[in-house]
Design goal:
Distance between the termini: 68 Å
Helix content: 25-40%
Number of strands: 7
Number of helices: 2
Radius of gyration: 25 Å
Shape: extended
Order of helices and strands: HEEEEEEEH
Largest sheet: 3 strands, parallel
Strand order of the largest sheet: 1-4-7
Length: 91
């Protein structure tokens, strides 16, 4: 009987602990990225690719203007280099 009581206490404590944590876990909140949302790469000085990369999204660079390695890298999106769109996304 004592073993049953100890097992029961352990089970009750495990369940209580689990449900106690469930109340403290919060859903992740989404961060609004604004105009930067469509960018896969967004940088300030230089963007360098060194292989056969595939970038799915826009590439933005401001105030720099050096984008190196495309090709062989592929950008499935638009490249915004030192223009108003890249500046707004950076800001």
């Amino acid at each position: 009987m004592k073993i049953f009581n100890k097992v029961s206490v352990v089970v009750v404590l495990a369940v209580a602990f689990t449900f106690g944590l469930a109340g403290s876990i919060r859903a992740a909140t989404t961060v609004d990225l604004g105009t930067a949302d469509n960018f896969a790469i967004l940088a300030g000085e230089m963007i360098t690719n060194t292989g056969p990369s595939v970038i799915n999204g826009d590439l933005g660079l401001h105030p720099g203007s050096a984008v190196v390695g495309f090709p062989p890298g592929i950008v499935n999106g638009t490249q915004y280099v030192a223009d108003a769109t890249a500046l707004q996304a950076i800001n």
